[in-house]
Every structure is written in structure tokens, then in C-alpha cells.
Write a structure and sequence with these properties.
Blueprint: E1 3-5, E2 18-23, E3 26-31, H1 32-42, E4 82-85, E5 119-125, E6 128-133, E7 138-143, E8 164-166, E9 176-180, E10 195-200, E11 206-215, E12 218-227, E13 234-238, E14 262-264, E15 345-351, E16 364-367, E17 377-381, H2 391-398, E18 406-412, E19 419-429, E20 433-443, E21 452-459, E22 482-484, E23 488-489, E24 495-498, E25 514-518, E26 523-532, E27 535-544, E28 548-549, E29 552-557, E30 618-621, E31 625-633, E32 637-641, E33 655-657, E34 662-667, E35 675-678, E36 690-692, E37 697-701, E38 709-714, E39 721-726
Parallel strand pairs: 1-4, 15-16, 31-34, 33-39
Antiparallel strand pairs: 1-2, 2-3, 5-6, 6-7, 8-13, 9-12, 10-11, 10-13, 11-12, 14-30, 15-21, 16-17, 17-20, 18-19, 18-21, 19-20, 22-29, 23-28, 24-27, 25-26, 25-29, 26-27, 31-32, 34-37, 35-38, 36-37, 38-39
Length: about 725
């Protein structure tokens, strides 16, 4: 290999510039144009043209034509010359020989001579050869480019064949599908490893997959993409690699709920004839509008055709290795990813619209009602569609010591914003599946049959241990009694008393305290709304006695606790002694028999049948509503029953109401616990869309502009109530 030696000086390099060259220990002088040609010849040639694609074979789907032969590889260019070596500095003089015996010290090395100007490295940039010189200058040595490779010959024409036919009865599966076909192995273009597409005659079922066996007339196809029910008539054709799926069509909107049908009124009774017939009964109204149709599923995108593989062009010869480029600057930090979804264990299942209490089948889930807001039980198979066994995890959810065991979110795998959220109150293990007692919170109303869904479970933590009792508070300062001479009637209306003490400075009473106001023979129990200067405003809760009084004594007390349990029934008293029989009264005299009345004339003939009465006018449209029954748990909470209310979540549950829907609250506790919808806890009454009675049935049609949060509350006991979320 020749080496370019160091140059003493170099200003401008041309083809006639002479470089010293050393080869095999001999020195030469070579013009630059010579080794520039060598460098150009060694640069990589351009890729040869792609061989023409073989023509399409005749028949249903011809086998892919053989790949054209690879073009001849261009000859390898000669190796480029190595960079110029710097001249070696002169050797230092040898030290003088020492006296015989001990060796003298070696002489010091002479200083290295100056390095001559030379090429330190070279690279090809945009087809130009750049020389990097030792004085940090860069010289463009000109364009370097190899000759174009020879075009490969055209591929041979593929042999065509008509499709195979099979009458095998089977259901498409991802396993091996065995067909008995009408043509034996070797009589057509299909063999082991071929990609095929098998379709039923009615196109309702198909299998896209790979032939894994073909012996005689028996063919085995592993289904990469199976679809459809069991079929008996099949056509099998060669196919190319499966194109990418088209974009999923958007889900059609849910059809609106039809309005309640009209109740026809009973037809009026026809006029009374001599024996006129009763008018016909009016037609009964349609019990309800038909459910709106489910929106059509978006169409499946068509499979894109696979382009043919071009023949491989010839490989160009290896060019000289370029110098390593400088390390690029660090890229900018990527944008923060989107917020994660509902946390917990996430699994994939397939949804079933069947509502029976049975095993939904491998990898499937279902509810006890197709309308998700009305569903109270989820049936879930032990394994998801990927074979993941959830038994141990579901048992840990039921083991939670919290009354509310957890939550789960079920959503569409293809439309991420279509989901519903439920609470979990209990889980029961069955043979091959679990039943999950649940309550709908919010989200979509339904899922399509066989739709792929994603379930995420979040377990509620166990109840923590009882905290230790806090230390006793310091003894508060005593105070003399609070009295008032204001005149008031015993009632539950708010009252203002002028007292003998100033608030705070002279009295321990303050707003929010519960007190008893005692009169001569009556009392009021209530809560102080405010106490400013000597003016005490009291909201009565319970009263004893009646009348009007002008002398009052106030006593601090606590809030009345919940009602205690009903005492056991006392023993049955002994039966009293039977009293003596009373004397028998005297029998009255028998009255005289009256004379026989006139039997009257002969019975007249039947009157003609009266005309049929007209059909009654159509009754007004009925109202669709949800109704809850309300009772009370003492003064601690309302107890709900009705749609969506489950065991363990009946006392003052958080409610979720939909705008435009009507809700009936039937208050069975009456005037003892008046029911009211408010703007907040202890706030003013919310009246938009509210009608009815607070002690009977409160009707609430949620306005479309209702706030996102309201509150229901007893107007007498503030502890009874909870939040209403408007969605």
C-alpha cells in the first residue's frame, strides 16, 4: 500500500501538484491527479436500477412472480491512498561510550523535527471528496461517484390457478382450521407457508392466515384474523400480506329514549236505552314510545393492497471509511405525556348483552340489565381475553373491611371516552366466574354485544384502627344563667330574644349552640342562629306545650342524638275474668202480614240498543321519571330505596341526577323530616324545576342550566342529607 509522505509546503492543490509517495521502502513523486482518480474509483457506486416486476399470473390470484436476478456487482474500486505521514525528526546523537566496566548514561533524544503539511483525513460530502489538511485547511478534491449498476433481468411470469373449494363445516378460530379441499397438493400454487384468504359463500365468515399443512386434499390454516359464525361452503385463494386496518368508523350516537305513549281515556258510556248497551271502551293508549334505534356501526376500512417487492439492485463497492462526525447536540426534552386514566388493575374482556346469572363464557363480562344505569350485578369470567386469571385479585377486593369494597371502570377499547363507573359493595365467587354487586355512578348507558371492553378495578383500603382517645379538654369558665323577658308563642318559627347578657363577653352562648328555652309550663329545643350584643336568634327544632310566655330561662345542651332502638315488647297481660251474662231481652210481637201488592202489567219488550258512544279524546302524554322511597334512620339520615340504591349504601347516598330527567322523592317520614333540595349544605332552597310537597312527594325535573352540585337536606335535622351531582 502506497503512503503519501509529508509535504514541506502546500498552497493550492491541482491535478499536477506533486506529492512524495513511499511504497515498499522506495520514494516516488506522484501528481495529485493520479491518486484523486484512485479515490474517485473507490467511492461507492450508485444503487443499480430495480429489476422490472414480473407480470401478473393468470387465474384467480397468481402466485407472486420470482424475484428478478440480482444485477452484477460493480467491480471494487482500488483502495484510496493513506494520508500523508509527517517527516520523522532527526535521531539524537549517541552518547559517548563510557569507560570499560560501568556503562555510561545514554545520551538524551534529540527534539522531534517539525511535521510537514499533510492530509490528516478525508470524507465524501454531497459526492465531493474533501481533504482535511494538517494546517486545519479543507481542500475540495472534486466530485467522486461510481458508475450505475446493470439493471437486473425481468422476473419470470407466475403460474396462475383458480381458487380451492371446500364443504368442510367449521367455525373460524385462531387455532388450526382443517379443510378438505377439492384439489390435492401439487396441483395448484398453494403450499405450506402460503398466505391465503378463506371466505364463506355468503361472506359472513372468513379466515386470513397461513397454510401450516397440506397433504393430499387436507389443508390446515392457522387463522391470523378469523371472523364470523360456523359455515359449510368455503372458497380459498392465495393472497398477499394483510394490509393495515382502516380507521375505525366513529360510533353512532345512542338513539333517544322515546316519549311515554298516550293513555287513551275510557270512552263515554252510551245513552241509556230501554235496555241500551254500554258504550264501547276507549282504546288503550300506546304504553310507550319505541326505543330509538342504535346508531349504525362505522364501516370497516378496506384493506390496502400490498405493493410488489422490487428486485434487489446490485450492491455497490465499499467506499473508503469517512471520518466520524462530531456528536450532535442533545435533543429537546419531549413534551409531557397525557394524564393517565382511572388507576388500578386493567384487563381486557369481550362484552355480552345476555343478562342471565350464568358464566358469561371465557374472556367475557355481562350485567344483569342491558341498561347500565339499572344494572346492579356484574358477571365476570375468571380469565380475560388474554388468559389472565383474575381469581386471586377479585378475592382481595371482597376481603376489604370497608363497606364500599372499591370501584371499577368499564370502557370501550376503541372509543376511549365511552365508559361507565360503578361502586362495588360485595363479590361472590361462583363456578368459573364471579358476581360483583355494584351500583352505577355515571357514564354511558350501554355497550354493543361482543364489543371489546377494558375493565379497571380499584380496591378500597381496609378500615384503619380506632384512634386513641384525645385528652380531656380544660374546664371551661362557668357562667350565670341567661334569661329573657321577650314575649313569644310556643311554635317552630324563628324567634329573637332580648337577654340579660351580652354575647361572648358575659355569656358562653354563641351561634351554632343547641339550647333549651324553658317557660313556666312549656319549653323550646333549638339551635342558636346568631347571638349579637343581647339579641339571641333561635331556630326551634322541637317544642313541648302550648301558649304564649314572657319569662324564659336558657340552658346550653348538645344536639339531640339519634333515636334509640325500640324497647322490647312487654309480657302479655293475663286475661281478665269473663263478665256475667246479661239477661235475655223480651221478644217483641210479630207484625201483621201486609196485603199482596199489585203484580203490575206485563213486562215491556226490550228497548233498542243505544248507539255506541264516541271514542274519548286521547289523554295527555305520560311522564317518564325515576322514583325513590324515603324513610328515616332516626334523625341521623334519610334511608333510600329504589333504582340504583344497593345494600350498604342506603343512608344518605350521594345522588347523580341527569339534566332533563324527572325524579320523584316520596317522603314516607312526613312532617317529622321535611325533605328539601338546596343550593348547598344549610343553604337556601333550590326551586327551579321543583314542585310537590316536602312532607309528601317532591318532584324535581332537572333544568338544563342547573348547577353541577346541589344538596338535599331535612329542614328540621341538618344532619340528614347529602350531595346531589348534576350530570
Amino acid at each position: 500500500m502506497a503512503k503519501i509522505s509529508a509535504l514541506s509546503t502546500l498552497t493550492t492543490v491541482t491535478d499536477t501538484t506533486v506529492f512524495p509517495v513511499v511504497q515498499d521502502g522506495l520514494s516516488y513523486k506522484v501528481e495529485f491527479g493520479y491518486f484523486k482518480d484512485q479515490i474517485q474509483a473507490s467511492a461507492q457506486g450508485a444503487t443499480g436500477l430495480t429489476g422490472a416486476t414480473g407480470p401478473q399470473g393468470a387465474g384467480a390470484t397468481g402466485a407472486t412472480g420470482q424475484t428478478g436476478a440480482t444485477g452484477q456487482t460493480g467491480a471494487t474500486g482500488p483502495s484510496g491512498l493513506n494520508g500523508v505521514d509527517g517527516a520523522t525528526g532527526p535521531r539524537g546523537a549517541t552518547g559517548a561510550a563510557g569507560a570499560n566496566g560501568q556503562d555510561g548514561q545514554d545520551g538524551s533524544d534529540g527534539s522531534t523535527g517539525a511535521t510537514g503539511l499533510h492530509v490528516t483525513s478525508a470524507t465524501v460530502f454531497s459526492d465531493n471528496l474533501l481533504l482535511f489538511m494538517s494546517d486545519n485547511n479543507i481542500i475540495n478534491a472534486g466530485v467522486v461517484k461510481g458508475a450505475t449498476g446493470v439493471t437486473g433481468p425481468e422476473g419470470a411470469t407466475g403460474a396462475g390457478f383458480s381458487g380451492l373449494v371446500s364443504n368442510t363445516t367449521l367455525t373460524p378460530t385462531t387455532g388450526t382450521n382443517i379443510f378438505v379441499v377439492d384439489k390435492s397438493y401439487g396441483t395448484n400454487g398453494i403450499s405450506t407457508g402460503s398466505l391465503v384468504f378463506a371466505t364463506s359463500d355468503d361472506l359472513a365468515s372468513y379466515i386470513y392466515g397461513t397454510v401450516v399443512s397440506y397433504t393430499g386434499n387436507s389443508m390446515g390454516i392457522v387463522g391470523t384474523v378469523p371472523e364470523g359464525p360456523q359455515k359449510s361452503n368455503w372458497t380459498i385463494n392465495l393472497t398477499g400480506p394483510r394490509g393495515r386496518n382502516g380507521a375505525t368508523g366513529s360510533t353512532g350516537p345512542n338513539g333517544p329514549i322515546g316519549p311515554q305513549g298516550y293513555q287513551g281515556s275510557t270512552g263515554a258510556t252510551g245513552p241509556q236505552g230501554n235496555t241500551g248497551a254500554t258504550g264501547v271502551k276507549g282504546d288503550t293508549g300506546d304504553p310507550g314510545g319505541a326505543t330509538g334505534p342504535i346508531g349504525a356501526t362505522g364501516s370497516r376500512g378496506s384493506t390496502g393492497a400490498t405493493g410488489p417487492d422490487g428486485a434487489t439492485g446490485p450492491a455497490g463497492s465499499d467506499g473508503a471509511t469517512g471520518v466520524r462526525g462530531a456528536t450532535g447536540a442533545t435533543g429537546l426534552t419531549g413534551a409531557t405525556g397525557p394524564t393517565g386514566s382511572f388507576g388500578g388493575l386493567t384487563v381486557n374482556y369481550r362484552f355480552s348483552t345476555n343478562t342471565d346469572d350464568t358464566d358469561p363464557g371465557a374472556g367475557k363480562v355481562k350485567f344483569d340489565d342491558q341498561s347500565l344505569p339499572d344494572a346492579t350485578v356484574l358477571y365476570i369470567d375468571d380469565n380475560d381475553i388474554n388468559g389472565l386469571d383474575l381469581q386471586s385479585f377479585l378475592r382481595t377486593i371482597d376481603d376489604s373491611t370497608s363497606p364500599l369494597k372499591g370501584h371499577f371502570k368499564i370502557g370501550s377499547a376503541s372509543v376511549l371516552n365511552n365508559y361507565a363507573i360503578f361502586t362495588i359493595s360485595s363479590i361472590t365467587e361462583e363456578e368459573g366466574y364471579f358476581t360483583v354487586e355494584c351500583a352505577y355512578i355515571n357514564g354511558v348507558f350501554r355497550f354493543d354485544d361482543q364489543a371489546e371492553v377494558i375493565l379497571t378495578f380499584a380496591r378500597t383500603g381496609d378500615i384503619g384502627p380506632q384512634g386513641s382517645t384525645g385528652p380531656s379538654g380544660a374546664t371551661g369558665p362557668g357562667f350565670a344563667g341567661l334569661i329573657s323577658t321577650s314575649t313569644h308563642e310556643i311554635s317552630t318559627s324563628t324567634k329573637t330574644f332580648i337577654t340579660n347578657k351580652n354575647a361572648v363577653s358575659e355569656s358562653a352562648f354563641m351561634g351554632g349552640n343547641y339550647v333549651y328555652a324553658y317557660a313556666t309550663s312549656a319549653s323550646i329545643y333549638g339551635q342558636i342562629i346568631s347571638f349579637s350584643e343581647k339579641n339571641l336568634v333561635l331556630r326551634p327544632i322541637n317544642t313541648v306545650g302550648t301558649g304564649t310566655y314572657s319569662s324564659w330561662l336558657f340552658d346550653l345542651t348538645g344536639e339531640v342524638g339519634p333515636q334509640g332502638p325500640v324497647g322490647s315488647t312487654g309480657p302479655q297481660g293475663s286475661t281478665g275474668a269473663t263478665g256475667p251474662d246479661g239477661p235475655t231481652g223480651a221478644t217483641g210481637p210479630v207484625g201483621a202480614t201486609g196485603a199482596q201488592g199489585d203484580p203490575g202489567g206485563a213486562t215491556g219488550p226490550d228497548g233498542a240498543t243505544g248507539a255506541t258512544g264516541p271514542v274519548g279524546a286521547t289523554g295527555p302524554a305520560g311522564t317518564v321519571y325515576i322514583e325513590w322511597q324515603l324513610n328515616n334512620n332516626g334523625t341521623a339520615a334519610y334511608t333510600f330505596s329504589g333504582p340504583g340504591i344497593v345494600s350498604g349504601n342506603t343512608d344518605d347516598p350521594i345522588l347523580y341526577l341527569y339534566r332533563g330527567f324527572t325524579y320523584n322523592f316520596v317522603n314516607n317520614s312526613g312532617s317529622s323530616h321535611p325533605f328539601q333540595i338546596r343550593v348547598g349544605n344549610g343553604g337556601a332552597a333550590y326551586t327551579n324545576g321543583v314542585s310537590g310537597s316536602s312532607t309528601g312527594t317532591t318532584v324535581f325535573t332537572v333544568p338544563m342550566n342547573a348547577p353541577s352540585t346541589l344538596y338535599y337536606q331535612c329542614t328540621v335535622h341538618a344532619t340528614m342529607g347529602n350531595t346531589i351531582n348534576i350530570v
